[in-house]
């Protein structure tokens, strides 16, 4: 962004607040009024800075991927076993990524591209850390995300880890 | 009411009916390169609109014409705030357009898709 007149609000903080708002509610459930009230941004500044609600959403999604998913990818790359990988994916803040996958990706190909590449990065980190083929790594990631959705019924995560981590 | 459509590389906003009298405009043509995005925003109508010049502002009835707010020029044509769409522009006479359309969701999709 070119340096010009200083903005009347903290853009960094506003985007971070947008990550929280968009990560907690469906896209259509977040109004411009909600954004104005929660981000500490005047309506005019919001439009001038981000162009549209969708423009802000894309900035927030990329911020979430950099701030929250990026560190998870780094942590996964050092995971010694499936149990650890599952735990890391269970504990990470993936709210906006998961909501984007079901809510916006089907309707917005730019969102779909971001979501697909973020999930691929998780798959690759798991494959490299555990030394498993790409398809099995994707299955482990898919299981981990599914467990988040279902709240780990019957301690399914532990069962999966026992099956895949022979030494534990 | 306004009709928003894409013609080639332009966004065309046609002001319909008597609104064109109040707004003192019948249409606006903006190169898509100068369009930054579109947003359905029912809440914008309850914010201060700034100074009207020229056009019509009958609070609660119609907001139409050119308004100046915080050094920006904004074009309004809204009677029903629930159908207001904000089109943000760059390097144009207007900083943004706030127009009432028949189907805000469809208009936002039309404009945003044209920008991708």
Give a verbal description of the structure:
Chain A: GO terms for molecular function: DNA binding. Chain A: This is TetR family transcriptional regulator. Chain A: Keywords: DNA-binding, Transcription, Transcription regulation. The complex is a heterodimer of chains A (168) and B (116). Chain A has 168 residues and is mainly α. Chain A has one domain: Tetracycline Repressor, domain 2. Chain A is 72% helix and 0% strand. Chain A contains nine helices and no strands. Chain A has helices spanning 11-24, 32-39, 43-50, 53-76, 82-91, 95-103, 109-130, 134-150, 156-164. In chain A, helix 1 (11-24) crosses helix 2 and helix 4 (53-76) packs parallel to helix 7. Chain A is elongated, with a radius of gyration of 18 Å. The model of chain A has no long low-confidence stretch (mean pLDDT 93). Chain B is mainly beta and 116 residues long. Chain B has one domain (2-115). Chain B has helices spanning 19-23, 104-115, and strands spanning 2-7, 10-15, 27-31, 35-40, 51-58, 62-69, 72-78, 84-89, 96-100. In chain B, strand 1 and strand 2 form a beta hairpin. Chain B is globular. The relative contact order of chain B is 0.24. The mean pLDDT of chain B is 91. The chains are: A mainly alpha (168), B mainly beta (116).
Brief account:
The complex is a heterodimer of chains A (about 170) and B (about 120). Chain A has about 170 residues and is mainly alpha-helical. Chain A contains 9 helices and no strands.
> What's the total number of strands of chain A?
0
| Global structural class of chain A | mainly alpha
The parts of chain A where pLDDT drops under 50 for at least 5 residues are none
Beta-strand fraction estimate of chain B: over 45%
CATH architecture classification name of chain A: Orthogonal Bundle
Strand order of the largest sheet of chain B: 4-8-9-7-6-5
Structure summary, number of beta strands of chain B: 9
What is the count of distinct domains of chain B?
1
Number of domains of chain A: 1
Query: Can you summarize the main beta sheet of chain A?
Result: none
Shape of chain A: elongated
CATH topology of chain A: Tetracycline Repressor, domain 2
Terminal Cα span of chain B: 26 Å
Task: Kindly report how far apart the N and C termini of chain A lie.
Answer: 50 Å
**Rg from alpha-carbon coordinates of chain B:** 13 Å
Proportion of β residues of chain A? under 5%
Helicity range of the residues of chain A?
over 70%
CATH class of chain A: Mainly Alpha
Unreliable stretches covering 5 or more consecutive residues of chain B: none
């Amino acid at each position: 962004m070119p340096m010009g007149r200083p903005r009347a609000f903290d853009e960094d903080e506003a985007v971070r607040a947008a990550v929280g708002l968009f990560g907690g509610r469906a896209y259509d459930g977040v109004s411009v009024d909600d954004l104005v009230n929660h981000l500490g941004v005047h309506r005019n500044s919001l439009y001038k800075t981000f162009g549209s609600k969708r423009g802000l959403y894309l900035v927030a999604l990329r911020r979430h991927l950099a701030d929250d998913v990026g560190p998870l990818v780094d942590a996964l790359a050092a995971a010694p076993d499936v149990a650890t990988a599952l735990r890391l994916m269970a504990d990470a803040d993936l709210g906006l990524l998961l909501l984007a996958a079901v809510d916006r990706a089907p309707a917005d190909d730019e969102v779909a591209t971001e979501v697909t590449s973020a999930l691929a990065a998780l798959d690759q980190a798991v494959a490299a850390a555990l030394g498993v083929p790409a398809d099995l790594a994707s299955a482990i990631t898919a299981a981990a995300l599914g467990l988040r959705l279902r709240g780990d019924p019957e301690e399914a995560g532990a069962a999966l880890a026992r099956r895949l981590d022979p030494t534990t | 009411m306004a009709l928003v459509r894409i013609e080639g590389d332009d966004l065309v906003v046609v002001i319909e009916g008597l609104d064109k009298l109040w707004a003192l405009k019948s249409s606006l043509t903006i190169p898509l390169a100068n369009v930054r995005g579109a947003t359905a925003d029912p809440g914008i109508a309850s914010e201060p609109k700034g100074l009207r010049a020229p056009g019509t502002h009958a609070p609660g009835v119609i907001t139409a014409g050119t308004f100046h707010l915080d050094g920006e020029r904004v074009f309004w044509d809204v009677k029903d705030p629930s159908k207001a769409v904000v089109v943000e522009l760059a390097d144009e006479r207007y900083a943004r357009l706030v127009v009432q359309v028949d189907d805000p969701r469809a208009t936002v999709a039309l404009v945003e898709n044209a920008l991708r």
